[in-house]
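Q: What would this chain look like folded?
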Amino acid sequence: VSAPANLKNGSRRMSNPGEADLTPITSMAQLVEYFMAGCKPRDAWRIGTEHEKFGFRRSDYSAPTYENNGIRAVLERHIARGWSPIADGGNPIGGSRDGANLSLEPGGQFELSGAPLSDLHQAQTELDAHLAEARSVGDELGIGWAPLGFHPLATREEMPWMPKGRYAIMKRYMPLKGSLGLDMMLRTCTVQVNLDFASEADMVEKFRASMALQPVATALFANSPFTEGKPNGFQSARANVWTDTDPDRTGIPGVIFEDGFGFERYIDWLLDVPMYFVFRDGVFHDVAGASFRDFMAGKLRGFEGQIATIGDFADHVTTAFTEVRLKRYLEMRGADAGSPEMLMALPALWTGLLYDDAALKAAVALVTKNACGDFQSLRADVPRLGLETPWFNGTVRDLARDMVHIARDGLKARGLGEEKYLAPLEAITAGGPTQASYWLDRYHTVWNGNVRQIFDEAAI
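A: My prediction, written as structure tokens:
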């Protein structure tokens, strides 16, 4: 989940309120130009990694509240260490430094939205520094951090709510659209990577290949086999949550694979995604379910006569939750948060697949063998079956092996020695356990059925 964009500081994630472009929208061409502004020459392509983690009280493994030496104190101590504060309604809800952002998900999940970086080695350095700082701050407060895909212990009611304006709107609206939307907000964590494109045609190729292969990434990174202290029957409960959150804005939209798809077709789809809010004068106004087309025409109820701005459109873009999201870059959204090694493997996988011409061509060939519907069906099955999901004459593990092999070739072609970050995925595709399978084995053996032990073992 995300909020208005600060498009001027280079941040790749839009989870904190920021400055907006107040230019009124008077034509569709402006919206096409908005996305076209994301096109970059190859030497300007960057890698932006985002990852979330659950905080837990070391005393009893409960989720820290905002107050009472909890998440607010975590942010304030980061701010004291040099992060510039970001506030919502007078409450600190994030920070910015050197092109990176700290932000909060609704249940207090703590996120780093990394700076746009040139290579994976820089991303590793950034990750190490962030985890060390989060660990140091957490130790001062008796808080640990566990990057897992779904909260393994807490009920929905036991999770706190963070004081961010848009979350109150989503809290009201989500249950109207699906039964698991509040779980998405409160009890999930992900790792994502944001990657660039050179042109509209390059965007289309990368969007299609990464969208089709996103369920394979879901299987590779599955890390959420427990709910409320018990096995839940899923490899990725986080991915299952997204299947019943809001069909208007999630999943693998078929339009992406239609002939003639490009920025204009995507915008046409996006304008039919119902709105959540209008952000004015520091306040989020609840218009959930309203039409952005009406807003553009000056007919939005409560805002009659006001014409939507480019900044409003930028906000609306962040309310689409497809498995890959198009902003002024492409955001890979299909993976559970995991170990530090897996947090690095995710950007390595997609950088290898999408940033080398031969690798991208091979990835496109891998997915064009099959129809869009095959990958949509795969998305439905992978949360429960993971890499063992049937795939024609084999399983998804076979598809994952091909995918990781192509990524390795793509990283080797970059000539930077980045292929080492794929090692955890190569072990899994060779027959090793996923993170979810590993935890389930621990549950049934050394933990003797006590899921609480996952926090100590998964803590960064």
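The two ends are 23 Å apart (CA to CA).
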